[in-house]
Structure formats: structure tokens, C-alpha cells
Write a structure and sequence with these properties.
With 492 residues, the protein is α+β, with helices and mostly antiparallel strands. It has one domain (47-116, 163-327, 372-491): Outer membrane efflux proteins (OEP) (Up-down Bundle), CATH 1.20.1600.10. The protein contains 11 helices and 5 strands. It has helices at 9-15, 21-33, 57-60, 79-91, 93-114, 164-230, 236-270, 307-328, 373-439, 445-480, 487-491, and strands at residues 2-6, 119-130, 145-158, 333-344, 356-367. Strands 1-5-4-3-2 form a 5-stranded antiparallel beta sheet, with no helix packed on it. The longest helix has 67 residues, at 164-230. The chain is elongated. It starts with a strand and ends with a helix.
């Protein structure tokens, strides 16, 4: 329930004097004491201090060569990949949806800002009325039908003494910053998804080369076994064992071709043109052994650049301002109301000086009892703030976990790659020795083909390690918020 107190400036000027001003102040003080209280409602959550979090050894020990720029995917040095990423960042529906979300939040902020400004409008009315004989209407109009004509300009302005409207407007502005940060997050996620799909595509092409060579060797070995069997130098058992391996080797190629098709479809969809666009994608030009650098060190505040963390932080700011607006609703609200125009009971004198009407004065509404509505609203906004803070804290922890995980993966795969390279060198040495013995007549060609099978196996494992490394690098860029911007851009 509200107790409205309205004053006319004319009344105030003619009836209030300096001597009664203390009385007015006393009355207002009593009314304020009678207002609904916000006591006992306060946030309980606190944002985490990033500098006090334990980042872990993986982050603290991160070291290598150069740190990438904002366009980190260019480190893969593949022109086709660059074009695909740029197209994805221009045409993908998720990005267009994020852009529309920015437009929506901007419009809502403008709407909230409009509530802080004066509202002026015009009103014209003309009606045929019968005026009562039991009111202040004098003869000859009382008890008769006549025209009632009015043309006025109305004005209202919320003085917003307690900043309720301004806080709501600032909260809406913060929501636009949330939408902008979310769009940046969409960009990074699209880029990382495109890069990782492209890396898998490059790996599948290399696996196809190895599978084709493996199939050729197997067929060659089968031909040798058939000739040996015909010459009585082999058994049907050995030939059958080789023949049994052929379908699996052929199916391996079929599976790789399927993976290539699916990855191209995925890349086409990520580009925003649909899966059919992937049919025009050629074999990636990047080499999976490309040198990708890590930072000399990871700055403690680098995680704060992540768009999802920035968005979470702006949500906290917006929630805080919503609390301020909810608190302001507990205090008296003062509006300045007025109008000026013309009013007459006939058309002839409507716009004459005699028909001039006007009013200007403040109107104050004071909440005294509302059934707990304002306290419930403040409690809700406080709970939203606590949730926003905990979401911010969880996002920071998730970011640090993601960075630490990918650095650990990169360190682990580096060791595995070194071990696989050593195994590959030894397999290649065994293959060279087998070829040498074959050419010297000390062994048959089958032994050489079998040693090459070990070489192909190690090469396949090495391709997998390199793909994991480059994917982990892309995931690390996602975890860090997308490379490192130049100072001026980052500040903006």
C-alpha cells in the first residue's frame, strides 16, 4: 500500500512559509522512519581473488618460445585454414545470434535510460457530456449536455532521488557488456572448433597414406606367398593367415575415407555454408610437426581476459546495480507532474487566453505496507547476485583447470613424441638392415616387408601424438581466451 502525498507548486508558494519548513521536515522524517525496512538482506558470496589461487606447477613452469597473437591460428601456416576461420567468424548462425543478443540488450538499456528522462506528450479530447447538478458546475451548464474540449501538453519527470531508475539503467548497460563478451566467447569457440576439426582432417590424410602403403605391402606379401606356395616353398596355412588380414586392411581405408567425409561435413557446417561446402576442401597444407610456441610465463591476470570470465564479471556488476535499484524502492519516490493547454465548454473560446489551464507540482509516493513485496524483490536480487558471484568464481576455477590440463597434455605428449621418434628410428634401422640383407641374398623380401610394417605403425602413432599436441594447443588458446591481444586492443 502507498500513501500518496501530492503538492501543487501554487499551493506551496501561497501556504508554506519558512516558519513551517521545520514541521515539513519533521513530518518527512516520521514518514521515512515508517518506511519498509531492508534490514537483514545482504549478499553472502565474495568474488575469488585470483592472485591468491594456487595455479599449480604446470602453469608456473610453462616455458618455451614466442607467445601467439590474437590471430593465434595463423601459427599453423595454412592459408586454407585462415580462410575457413575467417568465414566461420562471419557467417556462422551462432555468431549472428550473439550479434542479435547485443542488439537486444542495447535496446533494453536504451529503454531503461528513457525512464530516467522527462516524459512529454500531447493530449486532445472533445466529448459531449451532461454535467451534474450536484457538484461545482454552475448554471447554465449544470444539468445540461454540452461540449467539453481540452488540448494539453503533459509532462512527468521522476526525480529519482534515490537513483532507482539510474541503477536499473546502469545494470542494463552492464548487460550489454555481458552480451558483447559472450559474442567474443562464441568467436573463440568457433575458431577452436574449426582448427581442431582441421587438424583431425590433416591427421586422417596422413593415416590414409600410411594405410594405403600398409595395404600395398600386404598385397605384395600375399603375391610372394602365392608364388612360394606354387613352388612348394610355402604352406596354405601361411597364405591363409595373410589373406585373413586383407579385409581388415581394406576396411581400415574405408573407415578413414568415412572420417574424411564426416570431418569435411563438419568443417563446412562450421563455416556457415552447410556440410556440402566441405566437399571443396583440399588436403590441409599444415604439417603436424609444425613448431608451436608456448609463453615464457603465464601472467597471473591472463585468465581474466577470457570472454566468459569477463561476461561473468559484468553479470556480477549488473546484479549489484539491480540490488541498488531494489533498495531504492524502499524510499519515497518523487515525481514532478504538470500540464499546460486549453480547456473550454465551447469551441469558440477554446484557444483564447481565458481557456488557458495548467498545473505543475511534485507528487510523492511512500511505501508503508506492501505485503513484503519489496523485501522479497530485494531478497531475489541479492540471491541473483550471490549466484552471479559463484558463477564467476566457478568460471575462474574452470579456466585455471583448463589451462593446467592442456599444459600437462602438451608436456606429456612431448615426452611420448620423443619416445615414439626413438622407436621409429629403431624401426627404420631394422627395415634398412632387412633391405640390405635382402639385396645381399641373406633374407627374403617378406622379412623386409614385415619390418616396414613396424615402421608404418610407429609413424601412425607419431601422427596421433602430433595431432593431440596441436589440438591441445588450440584448446589452450580457448582456455586462455584466444592468444594475447596487443596492448591497445586489450585495453579497449
Amino acid at each position: 500500500m502507498f500513501m500518496p502525498l501530492t503538492f501543487s507548486l501554487n499551493s506551496l508558494s501561497s501556504h508554506l512559509s519558512y516558519r513551517c519548513a521545520p514541521g515539513v521536515v519533521w513530518v518527512l522524517a516520521v514518514l521515512l522512519n515508517g518506511c519498509i525496512s531492508a534490514k537483514g538482506i545482504a549478499p553472502t558470496s565474495q568474488p575469488l581473488a585470483q592472485d591468491k589461487l594456487v595455479s599449480g606447477k604446470a602453469i608456473e613452469a610453462a616455458s618455451a618460445i614466442a607467445w601467439p597473437t590474437e590471430h593465434w591460428w595463423q601459427a599453423y601456416q595454412d592459408a586454407q585454414l585462415d580462410k575457413l576461420v575467417e568465414k566461420s567468424l562471419h557467417d556462422h548462425p551462432d555468431l549472428k545470434k550473439a550479434t542479435a543478443r547485443i542488439a537486444l540488450s542495447t535496446a533494453m538499456a536504451e529503454q531503461a535510460h528513457a525512464a530516467t528522462l522527462p516524459n512529454i506528450g500531447g493530449k486532445v479530447s472533445s466529448s459531449r457530456e451532461r454535467f451534474t447538478e450536484l457538484s461545482f458546475i454552475p448554471k447554465p451548464w449544470a444539468g445540461r449536455f454540452n461540449w467539453n474540449n481540452q488540448a494539453t501538453v503533459d509532462m512527468s519527470y521522476n526525480l529519482d532521488v534515490w537513483k532507482q531508475q539510474k541503477s536499473a539503467w546502469l545494470a542494463a548497460l552492464d548487460e550489454t557488456y555481458v552480451a558483447e563478451a559472450e559474442m567474443q566467447q562464441v568467436k573463440i569457440e568457433l575458431t577452436a572448433a574449426m582448427v581442431k576439426s582441421y587438424i583431425r582432417l590433416a591427421a586422417e590424410y596422413q593415416w590414409r597414406d600410411l594405410a594405403e602403403e600398409e595395404l600395398d605391402d600386404l598385397r605384395h606379401e600375399i603375391r610372394i606367398a602365392k608364388k612360394a606356395l606354387a613352388a612348394g616353398l610355402n604352406t596354405q596355412l601361411n597364405l591363409s593367415r595373410l589373406d585373413a588380414r586383407l579385409p581388415a586392411a581394406q576396411n581400415k581405408l574405408v573407415q578413414i575415407e568415412l572420417h574424411l567425409t564426416l570431418l569435411k561435413n563438419q568443417i563446412g557446417a562450421l563455416s556457415g555454408d552447410g556440410p556440402g561446402a566441405g566437399e571443396g576442401i583440399t588436403r590441409p597444407g599444415l604439417h603436424l610437426s609444425a613448431s608451436i610456441g608456448l609463453p615464457d610465463r603465464l601472467p597471473a591476470n591472463l585468465v581474466g581476459r577470457r570472454p566468459d570470465i569477463v561476461a561473468a564479471r559484468w553479470r556480477v556488476e549488473a546484479s549489484q546495480k539491480h540490488i541498488q535499484s531494489a533498495k531504492a524502492a524502499f524510499y519515497p519516490n518523487i515525481n514532478l507532474l504538470g500540464y499546460i493547454g486549453f480547456q473550454a465548454l465551447a469551441f469558440s473560446g477554446l484557444f483564447s487566453s481565458a481557456g488557458l489551464v495548467g498545473n505543475l507540482g511534485p507528487a510523492m509516493s511512500l511505501p508503508i505496507f506492501d505485503g513484503g513485496k519489496r523485501r522479497a524483490n530485494l531478497s531475489a536480487e541479492t540471491a541473483v547476485y550471490d549466484m552471479a558471484v559463484e558463477d564467476y568464481n566457478a568460471t575462474i576455477l574452470k579456466a585455471l583447470e583448463g589451462i593446467s590440463n592442456q599444459l600437462s597434455v602438451l608436456n606429456s605428449v612431448a615426452t611420448e613424441t620423443d619416445n615414439t621418434k626413438q622407436a621409429l628410428e629403431k624401426s627404420e634401422l631394422a627395415h634398412r638392415l632387412a633391405l640390405k640383407n635382402y639385396r645381399a641374398g641373406l633374407s627374403n623380401l617378406v622379412e623386409s616387408l614385415q619390418t616396414n610394417e613396424l615402421v608404418l605403425q610407429q609413424k601412425s602413432i607419431l601422427v596421433a601424438h602430433e595431432a593431440v599436441r596441436l589440438e591441445a594447443y588450440a584448446t589452450l588458446m580457448l582456455a586462455l581466451g584466444g592468444g594475447v591481444m596487443e596492448a591497445e586492443h586489450a585495453a579497449h
